[in-house]
Amino acid sequence: MAFEPPAAGLPGPGPDEGFPPAEAGAPAGESPWRIAYRRLLRNRIALAFLGLFFLIVVFVLAAPIWATHVAHTGPNTTHTLEKISVNGETKEVVEPSGRPIGPVWLGAGGKFFFGADGRLGRDEMVRLMYGGRTSLLIGFSSALITIVFAIVLGLLAGYYKGATDSVIARAMDVLWAIPVLLLAIALGTALAVGGLRIGPIHVAGNSLLIPILIIGFVSIPYIARPIRGEVLSLREKEFVEAAVAQGASARRIMFVELLPNLWSTIIVFFTITIANNMLIESALSFLGAGVRPPNSSWGSMISEGSDLIYSAPLLSILPGAMVLLTVLSLNVFGDGLRDALDPRAKVRLEVTAAQAGPEGAAI
Amino acid sequence: MARFIARRLIGMVFVLFAVSVIVFFIFNVIPTDPAQRIAGKNATPQLVENVTKELGLDKPLPVQYATMMKKIFSGELISYSSRLNVDEQIKQRVPATLALSIGAAILWMFFGILFGYVSATRANTLTDRLLTIFAIGGISMPVFLLADIFLYFLCHKLELFPEGGYATLSEGPYEWLSHLILPWITLAILYAGFYSRVLRSSMLDVMGEDYVRTARAKGLSLRRVRLRHILRNSLIPVITLFGLDFGAVIGGAAILVENIFSINGVGFYAVEEGIAKEDFPVIMAVTILGAFFVVLFNAVVDIAYAYLDPRIRLGSSAQ
């Protein structure tokens, strides 16, 4: 979005013509995206948390590098009966009592940086990196599903109004009535063993696609409703009337006229939906209805670690802290985005309000 | 007013009916070979056939649905694995879940309103910023992380509280309280900060209203205007939110807290008996119960509003 300053002397709204200045210090004619971008750059806190999010992404992307070159093990490789040398001292990875080795940091050349994960003696650091990939993948893909369906449903309901709106709104009301976590648990359990069969496509019960589809689905009403509200107010604007007068089709009005006006809302919702969906994923996996072996995510690691909370507290606190940092960075950045894109928005964090609390009604 | 309540209750019944259809669909249409699953992995074809007959899985879907609903309402729903009556099992556990949810709700409403009031009256000061951090932290906090930290440091290291579990009130009020206080705080932290943000922005809006200026102009003290005129009128969105959240906590967030602190409530039952053993009737019943609480509290809040605000009662939309 290149920005060219208007050449001097060109006719255009300027302060001297009696128009109020668009934004203090902003040259006239600057695109709203660019104004938002500059506003975002001024928000140090939001940028810092965006940086934190990128660090986390780099951390999980580096998993294979760390696993092959530093830890020399995989996320599911067991080391139950092995001994390692920590700073010259020989130690058992798992004591005969079943207690895993604690963090050895760099004492063993990078092996067992955060210790082992329990009776099986898997490398906690490697698992943390690979588990993060699963958690982020689920959060991102499910948010994509949520947002695409929410946009389509919101546009249809808001544009057609009447019967279409009633049907969609009622369906959303019904889904809204079932607490998110319970709906996800119900679907997770029902799909666990047999998997999902749609026509010729068969998804295995332990596939990652199952939690992605479930989490993507259960979050739809919380995003579709606010989008519908925005479409309802946008469709009364003159540009829609103009498009109708030009004979534009309904599809054209929805996707070419209305959709571009929704982008700023959608971007903010998308960021916050990733965060919320990651929380749902971790809760679902924690309860045993989300990610299933051989896959593991931060949520399932917390679940396994909780059994050893008193002897090896790090095993549940580490993945929990990773979830917190990721979700926190997305939420703070999303809040900054909202400030930048719509400075007049009074209630910040409204998305989560629509989600009825933390955990998205959480859950 | 009576007409409004009637309309609202009919809406409630409709939503619950639709919820039950969805739940039925999830457990009877989506899974492949439910009979095979119940009979076990190595079941003979004869056994699978018997299970199919016994559970009526060979009947048409509407008949199956009617049977399921009849079982739920007559209290004859039997768990697949433990063979115990699901309704009775749930009834025994509802008090623990209610004790947890109500206690947490009181805490989060109290601190949410207190923090929101402080933030709004001291907007953009250091206190306000710290409370913002608290709010975003609460929204982003995975319940189990907070609970694990409490369990490890406060229960295990410092031995201030028991390491999970639940004691009924009849075992002594002190026992009861010591088991519940951390779960309450855990749940309350997740919500209190968020409520304070909602109240803050609502109060800042109301502060600009003409009637607030009028109240000050006629000589009322700042404190009185804030408490009587501003706070009262700002509580509306907070109460709406509470109506949505409270039901969702009983049927939702409480599940996590119950399982981490081993409180034998409905959510604990859903996980230990339902998820772990893939016991469909258990999850089915808990899901419908959860939806019932959500719908009930929504209706209660709506009716309370209609009572307070005639515009809603007379309006055509019953949403």
The portion of residues assigned to helices of chain B is: over 70%
**What is the total tally of β strands of chain B?**
0
Tally of DSSP β-strands of chain A? 4
How many angstroms does the end-to-end distance of chain A come to? 39 Å
Q: Which series of helices and strands of chain A comes N to C?
A: HHHEEHHHEEHHHHHHHH
Low-confidence stretches of chain A: 1-23, 346-363
Q: What are the main properties of this structure?
A:
heterodimer; A: 363 residues; mainly alpha; MetI-like fold; 2 domains; two-stranded antiparallel sheet; 14 helices; 4 strands; elongated; disordered N terminus; disordered C terminus; B: 319 residues; 13 helices; 78% helix; 0% strand
Describe the structure.
The complex is a heterodimer of chains A (363) and B (319). Chain A is mainly alpha-helical and 363 residues long. Chain A folds into two domains: 45-61 and 125-347, MetI-like fold; 63-123, no CATH class. Chain A is built from 14 helices and four strands. Chain A has a two-stranded antiparallel sheet with strand order 1-2. In chain A, helix 1 (32-42) packs across helix 12 (314-341). The radius of gyration of chain A is 25 Å and the shape is elongated. Chain A starts with 31 loop residues before the first helix and ends with a helix. By secondary structure, chain B is an all-alpha fold. Chain B has a domain at 95-276: MetI-like (MetI-like fold). Helix content of chain B is 78%, strand content 0%. Chain B is built from 13 helices and no strands. Chain B has helices at 2-28, 34-39, 45-54, 61-74, 86-121, 126-140, 143-157, 173-207, 210-217, 222-260, 266-275, 280-308, 310-314. Chain B is globular, with a radius of gyration of 24 Å. Chain B starts with a helix and ends in a 5-residue tail after the last helix.
